[in-house]
Write a structure and sequence with these properties.
This protein is mainly α and 225 residues long. It contains 9 helices and no strands. The protein has 2 domains: 58 residues, Arc Repressor Mutant, subunit A (Orthogonal Bundle), CATH 1.10.10; 142 residues, Orthogonal Bundle (Tetracycline Repressor, domain 2), CATH 1.10.357.10. It is elongated, with a radius of gyration of 20 Å. The chain starts with 23 loop residues before the first helix and ends in a 15-residue tail after the last helix.
Length: 225
């Protein structure tokens, strides 16, 4: 069976280099490793599995990467780059206010994962088994997505008026929390249902971006003594 190119294959360092070009071997390995890890789990996947899927020799693999982990981490980071680019493009093309832009970005994020179940599993689930450097890469990815929410906040403040900036850690919690929910769907074999999370992602984001009581003003009722 012919394996479809992954999200990783859309990265500029990989896309267009999967044929017979001189640098095709690296591109094919990066395209293959996320799928192999998704299918077998990071711990069970071997270098032999990766080189077989990529159609390169074992010696070529070790000329390019010193370990399975290094290969996976490069593919992981490439996939994150692609997802962020998809989100940026969706936000830029969205018609309407900041809420429409927020929704477009969330939709693009979920659609990118849904379209590539293998990368979705590698990105959301298997990265946790890939060692401390992979956890560092995941933390970096979470902060990059949190920065995207901060850019959305700038649009919200321009539209809504005097809205206090959320603490940076609040945006990190937002990103980590929504990704945890997505990972639960992936682990449960519900990847095709990921687009259904759009509404809850948007509601959570609006709550964090605008603060208590909308617009950062605490409008909770005062208890009568």
């Amino acid at each position: 069976m012919v394996r479809r190119p992954s999200v990783v294959a859309r990265h500029p360092a990989v896309e267009g280099r999967l044929g017979d070009a001189a640098d095709a071997q690296r591109a094919r390995l990066l395209d293959a490793v996320a799928s192999v890890v998704a299918e077998q789990g990071f711990a069970a996947a071997t270098v032999s599995d990766v080189v077989s899927a990529a159609r390169v020799s074992r010696s070529t693999f070790y000329a390019l990467f010193d370990s399975k982990e290094r290969c996976f981490l490069e593919a992981y980071r490439h996939g994150v780059d692609v997802m962020l680019q998809q989100v940026r493009e969706a936000v830029r093309e969205a018609d309407g206010d900041w809420r429409a832009q927020l929704r477009a970005g969330v939709r693009a994020y979920l659609a990118t994962l849904t379209a590539d179940p293998g990368f979705a599993r590698a990105y959301l689930v298997e990265v946790h088994a890939a060692g401390p450097h992979a956890l560092d890469a995941r933390a970096e990815a979470l902060r990059r997505f949190a920065d995207r929410y901060l850019a959305t906040f700038a649009q919200a403040r321009a539209s809504e008026g005097d809205v206090p900036e959320p603490p940076p850690d609040a945006l990190l919690v937002l990103t980590a929390g929504t990704e945890q929910l997505a990972s639960e769907y992936v682990r449960a074999g519900r990847i095709e249902e990921l687009p259904e999370l759009e509404e809850v992602f948007c509601r959570c984001a609006e709550s964090v971006l605008l603060g208590p009581g909308m617009g950062g003003r605490d409008e909770s009722p005062t208890r009568e003594e």
